[in-house]
Amino acid sequence: MVQVIEAIYEHGVLTPKNELALRESQLVRLIVEPIDIVEPINNDTDRADRTAALKRLREGIERMQFFSSEPLPSRDELHGRS
């Protein structure tokens, strides 16, 4: 069974962020793909900044209008067949 997980690398040790479904002494193959974060998010200030940014994003999405007040063009009009 393949498991895709995130881990933190500190002081030469990879520590999984979640529990792994492995038996003791299980041999595994690791493919390490860095996640591009300048600094690990591990303090309250970073979390607060991230929470505030997410709130601003959600508010912006709520203000977006993904509909037209005018009638939508027909297929022929879209393809210049009229």
Folded structure, characterized:
- With 82 residues, the protein is an alpha+beta fold.
- It has one domain (7-66).
- Helices cover 29% and strands 10% of the residues.
- It is built from two helices and two strands.
- The protein has helices at 44-63, 75-78, and strands spanning 7-10, 13-16.
- It has a two-stranded antiparallel sheet.
- Strand 1 (7-10) and strand 2 form a beta hairpin.
- The radius of gyration is 24 Å and the shape is elongated.
- The protein starts with 6 loop residues before the first strand and ends with a helix.
- The model has no long low-confidence stretch (mean pLDDT 85).
Attribute tags:
82 residues, alpha+beta, 2 helices, 2 strands
Write a concise synopsis of the structure shown:
By secondary structure, the chain is α+β, with helices and mostly antiparallel strands. It has two helices and two strands, in the order ββαα.
Low-confidence stretches: none
Write out the strand line-up for the largest beta sheet, numbering strands in chain order: 1-2
The average pLDDT value, as a whole number, equals: 85
Helix content: 25-40%
Distance between the termini: 56 Å
The radius of gyration is 24 Å
Broad structural category: alpha+beta
For the secondary structure, the number of strands is 2
Major beta-sheet overview: 2 strands, antiparallel
Number of domains: 1
Query: What best-fitting shape do the alpha-carbon axes yield?
Result: elongated
Question: What's the total helix number?
Answer: 2
Q: Output the helix-strand order.
A: EEHH
Strand content: 5-15%
